[in-house]
Design brief:
By secondary structure, the protein is mainly α. Helix 1 runs antiparallel to helix 2 and helix 1 packs antiparallel against helix 4. 30% of the residues are buried.
């Protein structure tokens, strides 16, 4: 397996986390800010952690967690939009990036599962 830094999904997750941090850096709702930032960081952290085990089976488990965190960020972005913490355009852009990342993580899971079956 390649280094996690070379994985496009890790790079995309890092970019989303940076955008989330930037968007909420001045937000005074510390609970909301902390939760969405932690969820955003969790995506790339789980991709990185799973890759370090050098096991497709373990990597798949961590990718599923990363995918779940991506869903959590998306959910919070919908709330952010409804509460008025960000404008509709910003929320929709980040939601679409999260959807795309989630889809890419899912495709990588399928790839690893198929690769694992073919090597047995």
């Amino acid at each position: 397996m390649q280094a996690f830094e070379d994985l496009r999904i890790w790079q995309d997750a890092q970019n989303i986390a940076l955008q989330i941090y930037s968007l909420f850096k001045d937000n005074k709702d510390y609970g909301f800010r902390d939760q969405i930032q932690r969820a955003a960081i969790s995506i790339s952290n789980n991709i990185a952690e799973g890759s370090e085990y050098n096991s497709d089976k373990v990597m798949i488990r961590y990718l599923r967690i990363a995918k779940g965190s991506c869903g959590e960020v998306r959910n919070m972005l919908y709330l952010c939009q409804k509460i008025g913490y960000c404008d509709d355009e910003t929320a929709k852009s980040l939601i679409n990036k999260c959807k795309s990342l989630s889809s890419s993580i899912g495709a990588f899971i399928v790839y690893l599962e198929n690769n694992n079956r073919n090597n047995k």
